[in-house]
Design brief:
Length: 155
């Protein structure tokens, strides 16, 4: 797309309007929103556990959410797509609650080590689920990588 079309007469050409307003802009806005939400989630977790080194991946929250979403995708394929984020959230929260129960203290080192161990367990269970159902793994991988391909300007 030429810069001139972007800066001056972008509404003159329907294809430029479609590319910008219906295709690129919604994906850009959603990516910015999701990135900001992940940053806020990381700061909240660091504040809750009072450990500046704590992050969702070290504590195993990411892998617990991945396990919940992959389990739902592979074991219940007819589940509505709108339910998957809720299940991923529930899985992440369950992983965080289990971490707090197993660590029992607020010692940063013990919390981090327990989180890394749980993260490895969640990741291995997720990998096992994907390896046990290779015919359905494409949807799970698409979900885990966070693709924006289905985002459009339509509400």
């Amino acid at each position: 797309m030429p810069w001139r079309a972007l800066l001056t007469d972008w509404q003159a050409g329907r294809e430029h309007y479609y590319v910008l307003m219906e295709y690129r802009l919604p994906r850009l806005l959603l990516a910015l929103f999701v990135g900001a939400a992940l940053a806020v989630a990381g700061v909240l977790i660091q504040g809750i556990v009072r450990n500046p080194l704590a992050s969702p991946d070290i504590l195993g929250v990411n892998h617990a959410a991945s396990l919940a979403s992959v389990g739902a995708l592979l074991l219940m394929p007819s589940l509505p797509v709108m339910v998957l984020p809720l299940l991923a959230f529930a899985g992440g929260m369950a992983g965080l609650i289990l971490l707090k129960m197993l660590a029992k203290t607020h010692q940063p080192m013990k919390l981090a080590l327990t989180g890394v161990a749980l993260s490895a367990c969640w990741a291995s269970l997720t990998d096992y689920l994907m390896l046990s159902r290779p015919q359905d793994v494409n949807n799970a991988l698409l979900w885990l990588t966070g693709s924006l391909w289905a985002v459009t300007g339509a509400l």
